[in-house]
């Protein structure tokens, strides 16, 4: 079989497929809290590079973290602000919003609306997410909840 596409077309298709996977990750996992989607979108050997201390950074722990967000913020929604893809990586700048209606990280519900921003760099292999690095404004979220005083 002979490939009729140029290398640029092949790379472009792969890049667009990777972006589609990230849109699905954002919509199903981080905007709807569909835990079943984790098994479909994340590879079995998935790791994330921001686990709580002493915790394995695997797919099962990731599922627990997602669940905890939707317990604490049942209306949590994530919006993709920017997305850039190259090779097997996709960088995403996102904004998450939700109302603190359930316990979250030991914090009793406050009823406050919270907005948190972050950037994730995600590696995709064979149509599945295999690795994620995320930096997010946890301090800002804690300030919005009133747990940490804002700098004055």
Walk me through this protein's architecture.
The structure is a single chain. The protein is α+β, with helices and mostly antiparallel strands. The chain has one domain: Nuclear Transport Factor 2, Chain: A (Roll). It is built from four helices and five strands. Residues 7-11 have low confidence and may be disordered. It is globular, with a radius of gyration of 17 Å. The longest helix has 23 residues, at 7-29.
What would a concise description of this structure say?
The protein is of the alpha+beta class and 152 residues long.
Topology (elements, then pairings):
Blueprint: H1 7-29, H2 36-41, E1 42-48, H3 59-72, E2 77-86, E3 89-99, E4 113-125, E5 128-136, H4 138-145
Parallel strand pairs: 1-5
Antiparallel strand pairs: 2-3, 3-4, 4-5
CATH architecture: Roll
Strand order of the largest sheet: 1-5-4-3-2
**How confident overall, as mean pLDDT?**
91
User: What form results from the Cα inertia axes?
Assistant: globular
Helix-residue proportion: 25-40%
What's the story with the biggest beta sheet? 5 strands, mixed
Q: Report the end-to-end length measured between terminal Cα atoms.
A: 67 Å
Question: Which characteristics define this entry?
Answer:
152 residues, alpha+beta, Nuclear Transport Factor 2, Chain: A, 34% helix, globular
């Amino acid at each position: 079989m002979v490939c009729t596409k140029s290398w640029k077309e092949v790379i472009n298709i792969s890049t667009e497929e990777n972006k589609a996977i990230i849109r699905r990750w954002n919509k199903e996992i981080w905007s709807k809290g569909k835990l079943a989607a984790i098994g479909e979108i994340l590879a079995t050997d998935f790791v994330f590079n921001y686990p709580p201390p002493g915790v394995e950074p695997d797919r099962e722990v990731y599922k627990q973290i997602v669940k905890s967000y939707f317990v604490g913020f049942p209306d949590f929604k994530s919006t993709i602000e920017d997305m850039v893809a190259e090779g097997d990586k996709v960088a995403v700048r996102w904004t998450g919003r939700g109302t603190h209606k359930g316990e979250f990280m030991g914090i009793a519900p406050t009823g406050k609306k919270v907005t948190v921003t972050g950037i994730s760099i995600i590696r995709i292999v064979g149509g599945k997410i295999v690795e994620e690095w995320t930096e997010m404004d946890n301090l800002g979220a804690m300030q919005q909840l009133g747990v940490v005083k804002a700098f004055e």
